[in-house]
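Study this:
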Amino acid sequence: MSDAALHDHDARISACPACDAVPLAQRVAARGGAGGEDVILSLPTIHCAACITDVEAVLRRHPGVREARVNLTLRRVTIDAPGLSAADLIPVVERIGYEAHELDPAALAASAADRQGRDILMRIGVSGFAMMNIMILSVAVWSGAEAATRDMFHWISGAIALPTVAFAGQPFFSSAWRALKAGRLGMDVPISLALILASAISVYETMNSGDHAYFDAAVMLCFFLLVGRYLDYRTRAVARSAAEELTALEVPRAFRVTAIGEMPVPVAELVPGDLIRIRPGARVPADGEVAEGASEIDRSLLTGESIPVPAAPGTALSAGEVNLTGPLILRVTAAGRDSSLARLTALVAAAESARGRYTSLAERASRLYSPLVHLLAFASFLGWYWTTGDLRHSVNVAAAVLIITCPCALGLAVPAVVTAASGRLFRRGMLIKNGTALERLAEVDCVVFDKTGTLTMGIPQIVSIEAIPPADRDAALALADGSSHPLAMALAQALRDAGHSPAPLAEMREIAGQGVRATWQGREIRLGRAGWLGAEHGAGRISASWLSLGQGAPIRLEFTDRLRPGAEACVTSLVGAGYRVILLSGDAAPVVQDLANRLGLAEWRAGVSPTEKLAAVQELGAEGAHVLMVGDGLNDTGALAQAHVSISPASALDAARTASDIVLMGNDLSPVADALSVARRARRRIKENFAISVLYNIVAVPFAIAGFATPLMAALAMSASSLSVTLNALRLR
């Protein structure tokens, strides 16, 4: 396909963000071997249509960019920019205030589109349309049509029903066949038998001019079961592998320093001892030790540590960290599969696999249900055939038993409740991604919170602005504007909000790893680290920066991390409800203690690495606790995947969101406590639905075994039980 053709393909892509991902990823993969012109960036902070417009507009204006398409669902932008790299485009996006990280197109292209949902919907549509037409034809038979007229309507119904059952019933037939080949009985085996028997009996009755045919029962059965199957699918459809997301987040290339200059090489080709250059603003592609340069490193992505740390020759860096202020030369110690990010990916994959072994209530019920249904139907057939010798009547009774005991209500018991509860929580700003999440959430007795980005917004907020003399605040604003350090940016924003304007400064210069300096009114002023300004670091509430105005002692500026809205109310509600609440953070102990005191939390741990956070969740599980983990960063993904159930804010990194069972769409944290309450009520509704299903079978099955229920009557009874289960689930809304 030519570039022109590919560009035309872009123009035809759906406006629906969710529909854009696969074609774009496939196009990227196709180009990957021939120059790799497209760049994919992760945009974890975008959240609305305005974000899409802003990002696409600024990228399209950039020289060399032919097209940019934002996928809001996946929080990614795919950029068609021949000759440009991610390093060229990330600053363009960050200048308008959006965080951006490069994604590996090859890793993303490995996952194909999931067409299961559309396939089920198509089969529901076909079976529903056929059911309505057959019911119309059946009205004539029920009204008294006889002889040739009745047979004609039966044949027309069969011509509609048989292809419909063969097509729409494929999910059940294929699943039943796989179960039988594996030597087991699943819920789809009796379903398939009921569909086949109802169709076969109907054909037999039609060929012999029988009074009754049950084509409508077969199609109706198929329709209701597909609806249950789709409801179940929708609760699982959003979930993707967090391990794949982590793999895509790994930097795909690095700049290796050689005797002849810098060369871009795939990260997989790096070996221990290689020297690589890391530019300001770039992520570290491999584990290593700083050989040259000085800078500050943002480790929040991996450790949750909110404040950048200095880096100098000899400092150890890990893959995934971000270089902020100065260029560095890194000597590689581990790369590719041996890096710390790759090890974290392996931990997440292992944790996901372990949690995937959770068995839902419906699955546990089906293990007992399926063998019992077959035994009842077979016993009914043998009993009637032994008693009457009438093969035709015996098969009719067996089919009626299979249909009337068909697990339609059982199949809807969980999905109907999950759908109702999901709708309720969605209106509260929570998106449930996993079909068993609500069941697991109802079992929670311990809640573990991450700090930075979860309980807090991860945004420094100055608490000592009054320490700056009013006459010097314009100069302080201008000085802070000259630095990319998060504390300097927080100071600048606070001064602007207070109505100040930057003063004219001369000879401004940022010193990597130290701070920024300039000349104002004939004297040198500085903003930065304590040692650089000759001050004592001392103890702070969260972190501190120092301001020197060229006269007098440096001014200590203290910062705290802004609480997420609803965090205090959420924690208070959970503690009041009797849950054990724990704070685990990679931040320094004074910082974590300060937050724990503000929220009234007695249990907290500081300086926790990603591996230690995962181990802590495992230990709680080994003690018998059912842990809810709430986190947002790469450092949390292992714990999120390991926990009994997990929640991430929408502002979280892609990998954290995909490792989670539930995504909190807004900034408010208070819906977390509501979700636990809704989950417990949902569990009661599920148990009630199971009770309804059991009671229905206790009443209806004896009628079918006694021969009083035809397959049609059985189908109607089955539909009534499904409706009752659905109505009970809607009480949750």
Q: What stands out?
A: The two ends are 50 Å apart (CA to CA).
